[in-house]
Design brief:
Elements lengths: L25 H16 L4 E3 L9 E5 L14 E13 L2 E8 L2 E10 L2 E7 L5 E7 H14 L10 H17 L1
Antiparallel strand pairs: 1-2, 2-3, 3-6, 4-5, 6-7
The structure holds zinc ion.
The site of zinc ion has 5 residues, from helix 2.
Length: 174
């Protein structure tokens, strides 16, 4: 296992759609192991392959993220291959949503309260499950990454342009 470099906006691989995984081979399994380690090291609760420069439809997430009462200190994650949201309902505001690929910024984002996700597990078995609240937000955020969409694409044009100005300033001052 290895920690991979997390790319940040406006890196190109973050802004383009990713390809479906056709075969779950050693390359994909290594990618998943590395993504899990990279996510916990960051630390974060979810990570999508384009964030480490691989445009394949793979995400990982912290299985304890949705349970604030869960005081388990073990780092356990799950990987989803070719995940798809097949049903949505309700709406919530994801407060101060942030992303490992968007530095020094967070914003309130409107998200679905519940989503049903269909995917393959690491062994290639089809799975389907319902995600609510925090887990639902993680699913929407990570699956967006696979379509080249960042949470800053889901906020108002005004807020986004303020962020871009702030970023441009920071890049210029380095
Ligand atoms: Zn993200």
């Amino acid at each position: 296992m290895a920690i991979r470099n997390i790319l940040t906006y406006p890196e190109k691989s973050l802004l383009q759609p990713s390809d479906e995984v056709e075969i779950i081979d050693n390359e994909i399994r290594t990618l998943i192991d590395d993504m899990g380690e990279t996510m916990f090291n960051a630390p974060g609760v979810g990570l999508a392959a384009p964030q480490v420069g691989i445009n394949k439809r793979v995400i990982v997430y912290d299985i304890h993220a949705g349970n604030p009462d869960d005081d388990s200190l073990t780092h356990e994650f799950k990987a989803l291959i070719n995940p798809k949201i097949i049903e949505t309902s309700g709406s919530i505001i994801s407060e101060k949503e942030a992303c490992l690929s968007v530095v020094d910024y967070s914003a309130d984002v409107k998200r679905y309260e519940t989503v049903v996700v269909k995917a393959l597990d690491i062994d290639g078995n089809p799975i389907e499950f319902k995600a609510e609240n925090i887990l639902s937000v993680i699913m929407q955020h990570e699956i967006d990454h696979l379509d080249g969409i960042l949470f800053i694409n889901r906020i108002s044009v005004l807020k986004r342009s303020l962020y871009k100005k702030k970023l441009a300033k920071e890049l210029n001052s380095n």
